[in-house]
Amino acid sequence: MKRNKSISLFSKKKEQIIELKIILLGDPGVGKTNIINRYLYDKFDQSSKPTLGSSFGEKILKKDGSSYSLKIWDTTGQERYNSITKLFIKGSHIVILVYSIDNLASFDNLKNWYNYVKEELQREKFILAIVGNKRDLFENEVVSDNEGKEFAKSLGALFYLVSAKSDQEGIQKLFTSLLDELILKYGNKALNETSIRLDEDESSKKNKKCC
Ligand code: GTP
């Protein structure tokens, strides 16, 4: 039977999606996995296990007629500054350095995480955010809001305080505000040019192990 060629006239034009890579880094236990899970699935796990390796989850956001695929990478804080984590940093559009407000070492170590990221992304377009997580534990706070803010300012980074446990809205705002800042800083055209292309291997890992 002959194929009806005219059918292609009615096929929809493929929607263009700008693919963005977001990576969360920081010491073990600061809440990277739970921040991602709260954002993607509105879930929180009080006894989550340390992340093994790295994995990503995805969310599509629409804004002013454009679509953005946020590919959010979770990394393990266990093997600090190792060469494997470095591979995952490459090509990131948004880097989120996380500390926990009740853990001074996790805050102090952000300097090392920052140097590590800078080394890898020297020539790339990206924005940086410092995120203080676990704000629900304010009674055990050892890093003040001001210290977090000042540190972010010294790096030219954005600053957010969140709680993956109890502030779903704050976590949503974190990601939408970072996307807004990214678009404002670089514009869709530049972002489209640097839009990531995940290879087969990476795509197949999607959502399998995330978080
Ligand atoms: P690694 O995978 O080891 O690098 O850790 P991680 O940074 O991904 O931390 P994870 O999300 O696994 O959270 C570690 C612990 O902190 C878990 O027991 C979580 O339940 C807890 N946790 C995460 N976020 C919060 C939060 O906002 N508030 C409170 N109270 N606990 C949190």
Uncertain segments are 1-11, 198-211
Can you list the ligands bound to this structure? Answer: guanosine-5'-triphosphate
Mean pLDDT: 84
Strand order of the largest sheet: 2-3-1-4-5-6
Gross geometry: globular
- Rg, rounded, reads 19 Å
Count of individual helical segments: 7
Assembly context of the chains: single chain
The helical percent reads 25-40%
Structural class: alpha/beta
Largest sheet: 6 strands, mixed
Count of extended strands: 6
Strand and helix order: EHEEHEHHEHEHH
Quote the beta fraction.
Answer: 15-25%
- Measured between the Cα atoms of the first and last residue, the distance is 49 Å
Q: Gist?
A:
By secondary structure, the chain is of the alpha/beta class. It has helices at 32-41, 83-89, 104-108, 110-120, 145-155, 168-194, 200-205, and strands spanning 17-26, 55-63, 66-74, 94-100, 127-133, 158-161. The chain has seven helices and six strands; from the N terminus they run βαββαβααβαβαα.
Overview of the structural elements:
This protein has 211 residues and is of the alpha/beta class. Helix content is 36%, strand content 22%. The protein contains seven helices and six strands; from the N terminus they run βαββαβααβαβαα. The protein has helices at residues 32-41, 83-89, 104-108, 110-120, 145-155, 168-194, 200-205; strands at 17-26, 55-63, 66-74, 94-100, 127-133, 158-161. It has a six-stranded mixed sheet with strand order 2-3-1-4-5-6, sandwiched between helices. The longest helix is centred in the C-terminal third of the chain and has 27 residues, at 168-194. The chain is globular. The termini are far apart. Guanosine-5'-triphosphate binds at residues 26, 28-34, 45-48, 50-51, 76-78, 133-134, 136-137, 163-165.
